[in-house]
Amino acid sequence: MDMHDARQDGPAITQTYPGLDHLMIEFNQMKAFLDDPLVIVEADGVRVRDHRGQWYIDGLSAVAAVQLGHRNRPIIQAMTAQLEQVALALPLYAATEPAIALAEQLAKVTPEPLTHVKFTTGGSEANETAFKLARQYQRQTGHASKYKVISRYASYHGATLGALAASGGAARKLAFEPFPTGFVHVHPPDCYRCPFGLAYPDCGVRCAAIVDDVIRAEGPDSVAAFVAEPVIMSADGFIVPPPEYFTMLREICDRHEVLLIFDEVITGFGRLGEMFGADLYDTCPDMMTVGKGISSGYAPLAAVLLSARVAQAFWGEAADNVHFNAGHTYAGNPVACAAGLEAVRQLTNGALANGQAQGARLRAGLDALAARYEQIGRVDGHGLLLGVEFVSDRAARTPWPAAQLLCRAVAQTAKRNGLIGRMGDHIFVLAPPLTSTAEDVDEMLEILDASIAETLETFPASA
Ligand SMILES: Cc1ncc(COP(=O)(O)O)c(C=O)c1O
User: Fold this and answer.
1) DSSP track, 236-262
2) Which atom of ligand 1 approaches the CA of 292 most closely?
């Protein structure tokens, strides 16, 4: 069947944008996308405007990336100035001034043991790089048999083969199986619906203790690294671990000489109210991957931060051949690094503190909504990464059935009313820019409140 003929709503949008018939956007069924198309043509501060002229509050900072708001003049100026200097240098033979300066800044703002930086262009690539670094590190420090990477079900570490192999959600993975071997999964630290049927604190934090069991079962001599998103897992569900979780993971990893990698692609650069998720739990990884907010979303940029101990294994004479023999054309691109430098400058000069304050305001407002709507089972999260879970029975924590997803309906109504948040089946996520004002936050809450009320007027009473 001709794809164009199959469309239900006629070709109106593709008359305006004929190119839409040739485009595949991220994670989307394009036929469904064309039924309710959205083309963003302009953005300013916390707002974006679509092809019809409607403005929305971007309650997602694009994809938890644009921490410092849209059309941020100093970032645009820094990038423009760098474009005038040099847009792409000689990645195989030369460093650039913005990359050098940003590496120095990152060593200052990340937890202290992290001292060295390997730039990449996106979060998936950063995780691939971290896994390769982990394997090579183990090989070069007398543990050549250590190669496996342990991660959690329900995690998301990226869309490339290795990063997806480490990720947990079956729905994103099945079409691409089989994956490379050497990736092992454990259940996530989900206190709202404990996979072990236990309740905190009597559970003994089984979700962390099980990592020790799994490393022993796999054979400690075969395990190179454990990778986890610190604090919040937001790709499949909205999972916040008990307070001891990361300290316990750190001890378990040390016990078995397993490198601990924090995937801070989404949680880094102020998203959780601290500069990094690691700061919230006072646990430092051996490597940290970052992306998204590192350039405030203005240019493809990501990185792996290495502790001095890990980095040391890659320093030697040329003949020793211990260097990291990998790279990417656009890794550490000077224009992207110029954006990153300005983003870090703004974060450390007020934006982080404002994000913290607005995160507390948004959280208080969402808690107030939860007190009024029994359909809200919980509000969770940190800083400006907050999730609202809709349930059909709050006491039993029962999700709405697939045919009747209240959360999706609320999210659609909110979008119509001018607020874009993440439209999950059960969890509505808000991750607005750290530069949001108190008025912006209040407006988000008003729209969400009105959208829940409007949706409930026509929604079946219970599942
Ligand atoms: C925790 C986490 N890791 C990795 C990635 C992949 O990053 P990218 O989409 O830049 O490749 C994402 C993307 O959402 C993420 O949230």
Assistant:
1) SS-B---TTHHHHHHHHHHHTT-EEEE
2) 10
Distance CA 300, CA 186 (A): 31
Q: What is the pLDDT along the chain (463 residues), one digit of tens a residue?
A: 344 433 444 457 888 999 999 999 999 999 999 988 999 999 999 999 999 999 999 999 999 999 999 999 999 999 999 999 999 999 999 999 999 999 999 999 999 999 999 999 999 999 999 999 999 999 999 999 999 999 999 999 999 999 999 999 999 999 999 999 999 999 999 999 999 999 999 999 999 999 999 999 999 999 999 999 998 888 888 999 999 999 999 999 999 999 999 999 999 999 999 999 999 988 999 999 999 999 999 999 999 999 999 999 999 999 999 999 999 999 999 999 999 999 999 999 999 999 999 999 999 999 999 999 999 999 999 999 999 999 999 999 999 999 999 999 999 999 999 999 999 999 999 999 999 999 999 999 999 999 999 999 998 765 5
In one-letter notation, the amino acid at residue 10 is G
- Give the CA diameter of the chain: 72
Question: CA-CA distance, 149 to 214, in Å (whole number)?
Answer: 11
Q: Which atom of ligand 1 is nearest to the CA of 122?
A: 10
122 Cβ inside 6 Å of ligand 1: yes
Q: How many helices (H) and strands (E) does the chain have?
A: 17, 16
Residue with tokens 């003929």: 5
Determine if ligand 1 sits within 6 Å of the CB of residue 273.
Answer: no
Neighbours of 251 (CB within 10 A): 14
**DSSP element (H, E) containing 307:** strand 302-307
Q: Please give the number of the atom of ligand 1 that sits closest to the Cα of 163.
A: 4
Beta carbon of 130 within 6 Å of any ligand 1 atom: no
Distance of alpha carbon 243 from alpha carbon 403, whole angstroms: 36
Atom of ligand 1 nearest to the CA of 229: 1
Does domain 88-332 fall under CATH 3.40.50.1580? My reply is no
Contact yes or no for 304/262 (Cβ under 8 A): no
Ligand 1 neighbourhood includes 124 CB (under 6 angstroms): yes
CATH of domain 3-71+351-458: 3.90.1150.10
Residue ranges of the domains in the chain?
Answer: 3-71+351-458, 88-332
Q: Which two tokens stand for residue 311?
A: 């980095």
Residue 275 Cβ < 6 Å to ligand 1? no
